[in-house]
Amino acid sequence: VQLQASGGGLVQPGGSLRLSCTASGFTWRTYNYAWFRQAPGKEREGVSCMTSGSRMTMYADAMKGRFNISRGDAKNTVFLQMTSLKPEDTAVYYCNAPTLNLWGQGTQVTVSS
């Protein structure tokens, strides 16, 4: 039972990245999923979440209009499409299945010129 996050990297301000979180070992369609991030010296904060059945999505205010969470059912994957990236988006991004209290290992996103 695990979540595997990937897709981080170095990007210039204004650029885009797509993070992926692949689930394995459980019936992933029945659960909600979320993305969190943690910048150096700061607490972990919520970025976005998506419910299983209704596919309702929510975003932190700082991410609205720039980030999009989606699911790829065929690939057991949750995506986080990030656009118009800013230096303050630099952090380690974690995917999470809240009901299972299951976390991915984190993927580093660095926004810098």
Per the principal axes of the C-alpha atoms, what is the gross shape? Answer: globular
Order of helices and strands: EEEEEEEEEEE
Look at the structure and give the mean pLDDT: 93
How would you sum up the major sheet?
7 strands, mixed
CA radius of gyration: 13 Å
Distance between the termini: 38 Å
Please give the count of helices: 0
Which parts are unreliable, with pLDDT below 50 for 5 consecutive residues or more? Answer: none
- State the helical fraction: under 10%
Total number of beta strands: 11
Query: How large a portion of the residues is in β-strands, by DSSP E?
Result: over 45%
Structural class: mainly beta
Task: Give structural notes.
The chain is mostly beta strands and 113 residues long. 0% of the residues lie in helices and 50% in strands. It has no helices and eleven strands. Strands 2, 4, 5, 6, 9, 10 and 11 form a seven-stranded mixed beta sheet that branches. A hairpin with a 4-residue loop joins strand 7 and strand 8 (77-82). The radius of gyration is 13 Å and the shape is globular. It starts with a strand and ends with a strand.
